[in-house]
Protein: Cytochrome P450
Organism: Nonomuraea mangrovi
Amino acid sequence: MIDTAGLTMRELREIDLLDPSTFVDYDLTSLWRTMRREAPVYRHPRGFWVLTRYADVVSVYKDPTRFGSDGGNVLSTLTAGGDSAAGSMLAVTDGAGHRRMRAALVDALRPRTMSALAERLRARALELVRRMASGEPFDFAAEVAERLSMGTICDLMGVPEGDRAQLLEWNKEALSSDTRGATESDALLARAEILTYLTEVVQERRESAGTDVVSELIAHRPDDGRPLTDEEIVYNCYSLLIGGDESSRMSAICGVLAFCARPDAWRRVRAGDVSIESTVEEVLRWATPAMHVGRRARRAVDFRGQRIDEGDVVTLWNISANRDETVFQAPDTFDPARQPNRHLAFGYGPHFCVGAQLGRLELGILLEALRASVEEMALAREPKRVYSNFLFGYSALPVVFS
Ligand code: HEM
């Protein structure tokens, strides 16, 4: 991995932030630090704006009237000309349409649903972790994280056990491939498979409703009385699947990796010197699974002395904002006791992650299970990074729990 600390500003400017391999080949910690200091609002040679300071990222998040999500909210769709789900999926819809769908999702993910889910999640986490705490090397990503995150979101959506392995494979192909050079068409194909699968699930639930989130979305009656269409339900279930599986899986894996590197920090958590709540927040800040989000400028804007034109793509790098030294003390130190910790791992403003409560719950339950069964954790071999310009994380994490 190339350390960007030794590179000149000119060399840094040429690093291709669109190419998924960049995020595997380079350690970008120094790049972000230099950008925050010297070029915080920077036009990348591939034609999009790169914002790296916490305050700038927050100000764009807060301003959907000037920076819209309906042209897409990640680089891959924004640079391809738009997102086909615009207007039908929460994350890529603004204004009244967004408020209408968001109310439906908030209702479907309400605390009562969460507390019923937590019981099952707790039992699953305890069992998975206990089984692995034998002193033998194993892959935490495959044996624990995948089962926990996919299991949880599938429980919530009422997806049968037998379909989960296939969904996980498609999800990985769509977003977290660990193969260099996997093409965008492979990802598109996997996304199409997931959408077809979810369309069938929605049809089934229309015929026979259950107590799951899909049935809740079908039954939801917004204030305007107009129920969600099948297309809206399918796209939003797809969002739940991505958020519920991918981002949660990556944060769990990054958390265990962080503790492998800092056994002293794990001892403090184990001893109860640090709360699970603050540990969860620091793991999220440290991992920042959604490295960036994107917006499109609705009109020309003067931003910190730069002219952003109408239609320009603006990327907000959460992964840099979460290490901004003007907001976080010793930002490059993993400190589970960190207070305050106003990280941007879940975004900010009107599109703030609707599954944040579930993401936190999953991570907290996993940490409690680890605390109950694992005295020490250590890396057994090098972990394997995913190839993505959006998702930060690993597809394999060989470890030993004792
Ligand atoms: C939105 C991150 C877990 C569903 C977002 C956004 C971020 C994010 C950064 C903002 C996107 C934007 O502004 O364009 C994460 C992380 C998670 C996580 C790091 C786990 C640790 C979840 C879970 C679910 C979920 C568990 C579903 C149950 C969504 C949805 C949106 C969203 C539907 C769109 C919200 C909107 O546009 O109003 N997430 N997420 N996420 N997330 Fe999550």
The CA atoms of residues 187 and 281 lie 30 Å apart. The domain at 60-287+337-401 is CATH 1.10.630.10 (Cytochrome p450).
